[in-house]
Amino acid sequence: MTTTLHQEHTEHGAHAHGPDCGHTAVPHGDHLDYAHDGHLHREHAGHWDECEPAGHTAHEGHDHVHHDECGHAQVRHGDHVDYLHDGHRHAEHGDHWDDH
């Protein structure tokens, strides 16, 4: 999985994400992303960057089917819902689940 790096979210405003900001924190490698308005944001050098996956990475061997009552946290992401599972986000894609 590759990630779009340093695409500053210029319309973010003065909101500072953190443990009590009300947005879902999503572990992502060595940092936390925050789900906000269908985007994922990460703090970077005093501003907020978009932290979005680029490309397509299938999550191999993912037998669990996510749905509204599967027990995993849901994060609105663009035009779909990702499910937080085992430290990453899964998105349905055709007949499999992608790692986001």
Descriptive report:
There is one protein chain. With about 100 residues, the protein is an all-beta fold. Helix content is about 0%, strand content about 45%. It is built from no helices and 11 strands. It has strands at about 1-5, 5-10, 25-30, 30-35, 40-45, 45-50, 55, 75, 80-85, 90-95, 95-100. The model has no long low-confidence stretch (mean pLDDT about 75).
Q: What is the arithmetic mean of pLDDT? A: 75
Strand order, biggest sheet? 2-6-5-4-3
User: What is the strand content?
Assistant: over 45%
* Large-scale geometry: globular
Helix content: under 10%
Features:
single chain, 100 residues, mainly beta, five-stranded antiparallel sheet, four-stranded antiparallel sheet, 46% strand
